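Before we proceed, please read the two lines closing this message. Tell me what the token row says about the fold.
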Amino acid sequence: QVQLVESGGGSVQTGGTLRLSCVASGYPDNSYCMGWFRQSPGEEREAIARIYVNGSIIYSDSVKGRFTITRDNAKNTLYLQLSSLKTEDTAMYFCARVQLSGDIWDFGYWGQGTPVTVSS
């Protein structure tokens, strides 16, 4: 059973930093694309970063240059370093792993989320 457990969220002031972690378990290898998403109350979920097995990375424009996604396969852990935080970064942050559904790979496994609050 695939499990993803996020941690590291908290409250910071604008310009601050946080590092989110996502520990994965329940599957034997790390040959999957993983990503970070966020959702604010009343807003749609936003994909902000993803990292492929070959190391390729994609960021949303909203976080590019401020957030960094990394993975430590030895620890089965996905990270998201948040820097230069803005109040609009306030959200629940989720990690996710892709799942094959029919012929389509999509993010099908999700963690419970970790909250980030940025205040001015």
Q: What stands out?
A: The longest strand covers residues 91-101. Residues 37 and 47 are 4 Å apart (CA to CA). The chain has no helices and eleven strands.
